[in-house]
Design goal:
- The chain has a domain at about 20-105: Serine Threonine Protein Phosphatase 5, Tetratricopeptide repeat (Alpha Horseshoe), CATH 1.25.40.
- About 80% of the residues lie in helices and about 0% in strands.
- It has helices at about 1-10, 20-55, 60-70, 75-90, 90-105, 110-120, 125-140, 145-155, 160-180.
Length: about 180
Amino acid sequence: MKENETDSNRALTPSDSPIIQKTHGEDLIRRAREDVRASQATDKHLNKAVDALNAKDYQRAIEAFQHALQHNRESAEAHFYLGLSYFMVGDYPNAAASYKMAIACEPMDATVHLNLGTVYQLLKRNDDAIQAYQRAIVLEPNNPEAYSQLGSAYSTQGKRREAVAAYKEAIRLKLVSELGK
């Protein structure tokens, strides 16, 4: 019995097979090449899109960012700038959706949360705006703009005490920033 255990412990498993290892390695190389091609295509479309955005050709920018996302759905940058493009043409629901996708890809970017809060305010979704601004503040606590926007959202809701506190913090941070220069 002991002899059988030793033989079974030394038996080849499918992952030990040189044929399977070679196939697995070839598959990894193939996928890596596909990833490189997709990244290059994404970069090409991103460059075109950013050029269009800078030229204020927002419709062309939207199309180019959408093409970039066809190559890489996880590009936080493409989602962010697509949101900005939608914002510039006044399509706030699509801007919000794009910013939320950017956050899903890169949740630690305070700027995206700040922009999402602005869009929510324009959509009169002030509770959502407040949450977005608060998240931006958690991520970047020394950003006076985030506190100012938070104050604006509170003010819209009639929450005067909260608005004043947020505005005071925005002013304090701005002064600290200016004195540090």
